[in-house]
Amino acid sequence: MRVQVDNPLSSPSVGIQEGAKNERSILGLFIVGITLAAASGQFDRFGVSSQIWLLIYASFVYLFAVNYANVKVALKESWFLLLLPSLVIASALWSEDQARTLVAAVQYFFTACIGIWIGANVKPRELFVVMLLATVVGVLLSLVAAYLYDFVNAYQMADFDGAERYLVGIYAQKNVFGKTLFLLTLSLLVLSFGSRWLLLVYPVTGLLLIPLLEVKSASSLICYLIILSLPLFWLAMRNKKIGFTLIFSLWIVFLAGLFAAVFADIDLVDQFLGGLGKDSTLTGRTYLWSVAIQSMDQHPVLGMGFEAFWQPDVYDSTKLLRNAEGNIITGFHNVFLETVVATGLLGGFFLMLIFLVSLYRCSLWFYKTQSAESLGSLYFVVVTLLLGFFDNVVFAQHELFHIILIALCVMSYKQIHRSRNNNNNNKESQ
Q1: Nearest to 354 by CA among 384, 374, 331, 320
Q2: Which alpha helices (H) appear in 122-239, and where do they start and end?
Q3: Per-residue pLDDT averaged across 183-188, rounded?
Q4: Could you tell me if 376 and 192 are in contact, meaning their C-beta atoms sit under 8 angstroms apart?
Q5: Residue 224 near residue 185 (C-beta atoms within 8 A)
Q6: What pTM was estimated for this model as a whole?
Q7: CB of 133 within 8 A of CB of 188?
Q8: What is the mean predicted confidence (pLDDT) over 105-114?
Q9: Distance, CA of 160 to CA of 167 (rounded, Å)
Q10: DSSP string, 35-48
């Protein structure tokens, strides 16, 4: 007698479970998109940033509960990512402004946890899709703000004039808008590799150079110029002969231009900074860095406490900085100095650990898979590391680059092990 066995995958209960899982996945991606938009400062001008972040916190508490198993594995594999956030919270014990340090430290810790959840539950391509959508919305809203001046004035954009007002749009600062354009370009290129839309993407990325030049943010422009080499590496990876010839030719042109500049006694740094309206002090950055180096001596091991230095009623040096510059200063424009001043050499070590492990993991991911997502992730880590010398990109609560860096560190480890498992399965089948 023939016994019919029902396929468990075709049962209604399993179908309902799979549907619920898909709904949770879509909800999770939507929350991630809102988080990336909020971290890029898209809600700051609308006066609802605090409310949005409270909703994000509540949403991720739910997501942590739903996906506890994945997060538990990620924490076991990447526990070191919470060393610096834990030290930041502990710094409230010796901070001169304990209340402010504790509130900001909890936000910073939760920001790192958000990055861990994203890395544990979101696929690489999904992350770049959500990143693209979040940045496109911000840029489009900024373009709307460029033409609807009532909209601009309604959201306190009067302090920006001319091209800067046009290009900052809904963002609070021009370098924030510049970094958003960088992430848009990165995600657009990564998603276009291997698709039929690749040839259409290149002109778009070229057009994005126009607003970057008008914004006159040196760090953002350098990031964009670095990212333009991404297609060359992809081409070299797919066609080694053509790619090598192209890269070698560009190096010859670069060295020839450098030799010509030296021969003509042209200071390229001054010319570059002058074209962007900057001076040799990098808009006062070198002065801030000297103050940071002097401040390290006060608390070299554990630092002054997270964000404690920037309270003018606590440290006299902060008062002098504000008076000398004529405006409010909230950072040293250098993530390494910022970290050491706040959390000492121990915090600086934890920060470098995050950077180095992320760089190693993304490099190994790219070496094993040579996928577009791995190449884009590697580029992001390298650019973030370089940006750290000119801006505080990861040592602040609700910082976009911090969330993405943590997510890629966790995600790359998963992809490396998945690649190893696939190779082992292929060997066994042979």
Answers
A1: 384
A2: 124-147, 149-154, 162-168, 174-192, 198-207, 209-215, 218-227, 230-238
A3: 89
A4: no
A5: yes
A6: 0.83
A7: no
A8: 95
A9: 10
A10: HHHHHTTTTGGGT-
Long-range contacts from 50-56, C-beta under 8 angstroms, 24+ separation: 53/107, 53/398, 56/31, 56/114
Euclidean distance between CA atoms 261 and 264, whole angstroms: 5
Residue the block writes with tokens 């070496």 = 367
The pLDDT of residue 167 is 59
CA 133 to chain centre: 15
pLDDT in tens, 13-22: 434 444 445 5
H helices of 80-123, in order, are 83-90, 98-121
Q: d(Cα 51, Cα 391) in Å, to the nearest integer?
A: 27
Closest by CA to 301, choosing from 141, 125, 149, 90, is: 90
Please give the Cα distance from 394 to 384 (Å, whole number). Answer: 8
pLDDT in tens, 123-169: 999 999 999 999 998 888 877 776 665 444 444 444 444 444 545 67
Task: Kindly tell me if the per-residue pLDDT of 211 is higher than 80.
Answer: no
Radius of gyration in angstroms for the set of CA atoms belonging to the chain, rounded to a whole number: 24
